[in-house]
Each structure stands twice: as structure tokens, then as C-alpha cells.
User: What shape does this take?
Amino acid sequence: MPTVADWISALTTEYEVKVVSSPQLISDVVAKQNRRIAEFAAKKLPPPAMKQTLTPISQFSPSDTIKVAPLTLLHAIGRVTTPCIPNLADISSTWALLRYLWAFELPSSGTVERLRLSSVAREIDFHQKSLLSDELGIGITYYLMTNFFATPNVIDVDIALRTPTWNLDRVLPTIPDYIFFDTPTGTLHIVECKGNQTTYSNALDQLRRGTEQVPSIITTTGQTTIALIVATYLMPDRTEVYIIDHPGDDNRDGRLPLESLDNNDSNRPPPKAEKISESTWKIIDYKRFVNELVQFHRAKVLTFIGADAEALRIIPGDVPENRTRFVAKESPLDTVRTNLGVFRGVTESIPNRHEVEVQLFRGVLDPLYTIYVSNGATAEEARILKPFRKHLKQSQGTNRRVGYSFFTKKERNRTLLQSISTDGTVFQISLSESK
Assistant: This one.
């Protein structure tokens, strides 16, 4: 059983992660694609549709080393895996945040600190190991999208396709994971993220499968979105992330004028999008598409901070009754004051059999909360977030390339661990040893 000091050290050490997007990586993925095509040809079957024009990501080509603290990864996992409204699959985002507190190797003095799973985490059963790999892959992808692609807002593509008000037909047998965007610039990124602990060859297979899963979404102006595939390889002694892009055939700017949205517009013509090829959709009702993108994101944030009823209130369309029964009753939220602002959210005590008291706080900037529950204009959201993000990055020093904050603070027998993200949310852990 790790001590409180062990937990704190493992969660707040900044570990190195190597991010690779090289011509050699592209070549290796193409080789996997060619083998796949040959296998189908041998069976006289048509190969699955796949994107074969692959390119490296320039800022990570051929590779770069980033630093990330596990605390920020837990924050990211909680944010991304929280649904728009609660369901029994997670009960609440607490599960995602608490589940992997123990999973990271303790730092060793005198060595380069690379992100590694603990020996205990590597010895769990196969299915739990697969879930752990996938969720850490999600956390690392969110960290990259937030801090290196300036797209901290996220919704699940699966939710987008299944929601009746989001009129996109599912065509491919598999679908990508997430849509990332920001306001007000709004460049859309369609992202498939994977994770594994086995081999580099398996990571390549995951990237290859991603080329069969990520669709193209074209705007009414003829622009297409940016599609990325990310595979995280958790090795015994280090972690590497492989990321590739597959450009479309058209202009790829994909900028969405989110600042011009009228969130109170109720004039919704029936068709919003149409399929124009096996893996390409064209947005017909451009304004409605973007408006609902923002609403789904805001609902996810509100559910993350425990404001379930408010999330249900702003989510677009009619929610089936079998989903609304999991929504908690409205109750007053807590506030936490930090040097970056006041955050509103929920505090939960986590019972356990060990002599450690654990409390979690999940919140969002108070003025953002006000905008979200009223479904206010995205221009107001941007006005709040711009100086907040500047202050956030400055708080970590001028040499920091990323905009997030985490710290530890000792108060008597209690230690606070806090992660603040550019999306305006906070995740705080309070650890104290029972007397």
C-alpha cells in the first residue's frame, strides 16, 4: 500500500513522454495497410475503405519529448469520459478520476523520469489492462489536443451519431472517438485514440485501424476538418505516443465561426448533414451543427462538475426517459478559490479501507458556469477564457510550452493536489492520513 507521500510524488512528478510523427512511422503504417489489402485480395474480397494519404504532424516530426504529470492525465480522463448526462456506465466522473490514482510508477532519484505504469498496474488481468491502456491513451490525447492543438473542447463522435437531433448516419462498421474544437476559432479535429501495452507492431495496427475509422466532415463552404490518429504505447520503461494525420482532398482550414452563433435560435430545419460518400459527410445546416457541438460540450462540463440537472436542461433535443432517470436532483454546488479564479463544482468524499481520507473536487470557472447554464453566447465564453489562459500559462513560467497548472499544498495533516486546465475546469484531490 503506497503512503500518502508516495501517491503525491507519483501523481505530481512531471514525466517525459516521447511523441513521434516521423516519415518512418508513416512508412510503417502504410506497410500495415498494404498487408491488410493483400489479405483481402487473397480471399478475393474488396479491402475496407481506408485513408492512404498519410502525413506526419510537423510539430512532432520526427519526434519531440513532452512532460506531463499523471495528475493532469487523471483530470483529462475524467473530463473526456464524462458523458453529456449521467448513465450507469460511469455513475459519475469520479470513477474515471479515482480509478487510476495508484497506477503510476514512483519516481527514482538520479534517473530520467519517464512515464511508466507501476508493476502492479502491469500485472492486472488482460481486460482490465486493455481498459487502462485505452483510458490513458484518451488522457494523453486530450493533453496533446488541449496544449498543442489549442482545442480543449471535446464531444464524443458516438454521442453525435446516436443523438436523434444530430442527423449523421453511421456508415462505417467502426467510428472515431472524439471531435475536438475551440471557441471562437473553432477548427474541428476528428480524433481516433488508441492505447496498448504489448508491442510496437500492435501500435501500428491500431494506427492502421484508425485509417479505416476516421471520417471526413465537410462544411458548407467546401472545407474539410482535420483528422488525427493517436496511439499510445505504454512500455515497461517508458511511454511513446504515435500521431499521424490524413489530409483530405479539399481545402483543410475547417474554421467554424462560433462567435456568430445565436444560442437561442429555435428554427431548426430537418436535415443537418448528408452522406456524400462511404466515409464523408457534408454539413447542410452549418449553424445548427456548430450550435449543438457547443451545447454538447457544455453539457459534458456541467455533468463533470456535478450539475446534472443543468446539463440536461441545455442539451439539444429530447432526451429519452430511460436516460433522464440517472440525473441527480439539483443541489447547491461548492466553490473553491484559487489564484486563477473561483471554481464552482462538487466535492465528494471517497470511502476506502485504508487509513487515508480522500476527497475529490471537480469544478469549472464560476463565470463559465453562469454562461453554460444560461446557454450564453460563445463570444462571452471566449472573453473569459482568453485572459484566464494567459494567466494560466504565466503561472507556470515563461518557458512553458503548455497551458495548464498543477500544484501541491500542505495544510496540517492534509495535502491538496490540484490540476487546472485551459478548458476552465479544475480537478483537486485532498489526501490526509487518519490520526
